[in-house]
Amino acid sequence: MISIITAVYNQLAMNRLFLRAVRKFTAGDYELIVIDNASTDGSGDFFAAHGATVVRNKGNYPYPVCQNQGIAAARGGLLAFLNNDTIVAPDWDRTLAGIMSSRGLDILCPCGMERLERTDVMRRRKKRWGVIKALVGFFGSNHSQLQLMLWLMYGNWERFARKVHRIHGSRAIEGFNGNSVLMTRAAIEKVGLWDERLQAADWDLYARSKRRQATHHDIRPVHVALGVYHHHYMRLTVKGGYPPMIGADKLIQYDDKWGNTEQVLSRMSDPVMGQ
């Protein structure tokens, strides 16, 4: 069973779309764990009414804190950390798990606009999304408008995602796509929980996997599966506002922990696997 963990604050329309995609496209058994950061629009109750385990916070906690709360509540052997503003691909769970098993990976992400096979492809995809988001998002982000954005971007979502899989299959490249991360329990034992001092926790996870590889040789760095594509609305609803973050004064910057390590890591990527 996969434990799907997501943190939310309001965004009920997005949450409805997220849940519908998870229920339609998740192939295997799963549990959904929702960390609700004191939503005021009924999002917590919405997820609870649809069978999710809802951890109800009294305020807005940083992203890595919520991830660790999800881990504490999870029962699955695999842990999937999904942003609530993502649309998952058909059979995403079984496909990613299969790639992890065949490639000897403990941490794997699907691809998406933020991480594709080539930078020029990413630029074109992001540019198209920016135009669509500006045109449609100008009128708001209710359920119908979110669906319209997805259709304008890809046409039939399921057909698009399956085409990506046909093209790329099980190919994987080193890197990460922070809106969707699949991890084994063994990965947590090796690299530890999410660092609650860092909002840039995805970069930190990648760096820690690289360091663990160098020091212990018992894990591969985070990789991205090119044949599993998740759509990310990319902070579309941030303009709706969030309450003050609890513990914000204790957060540190990525460079405070790693210095210029990011530049070093970017030059240490593996070639594409499985070609």
What do you see in this structure?
This protein has 11 helices and 10 strands. With 275 residues, it is an alpha/beta fold. The protein has one domain: Spore Coat Polysaccharide Biosynthesis Protein SpsA, Chain A, CATH 3.90.550. Strand 2, helix 2 and strand 3 form a beta-alpha-beta unit.
Q: Could you give the count of β-strands?
A: 10
User: In one word, what is the shape?
Assistant: globular
What is the overall number of helices?
Answer: 11
Q: What is the CATH topology? A: Spore Coat Polysaccharide Biosynthesis Protein SpsA, Chain A
Order of helices and strands: EHEHEHEEHEHHHEEHHEEHH
Instruction: Please write the CATH class name.
Output: Alpha Beta
Residue share in β-strands: 15-25%
- The CATH superfamily turns out to be Spore Coat Polysaccharide Biosynthesis Protein SpsA, Chain A
> What's the helical proportion of residues?
40-55%
Rg over alpha carbons: 18 Å
Q: Distance between the terminal alpha carbons, to the nearest Å?
A: 30 Å
The largest β sheet comes out as:
8 strands, mixed
- Mean pLDDT over the residues: 91
What descriptors fit this protein?
alpha/beta, disordered C terminus, two-stranded antiparallel ribbon, 275 residues, Spore Coat Polysaccharide Biosynthesis Protein SpsA, Chain A, globular
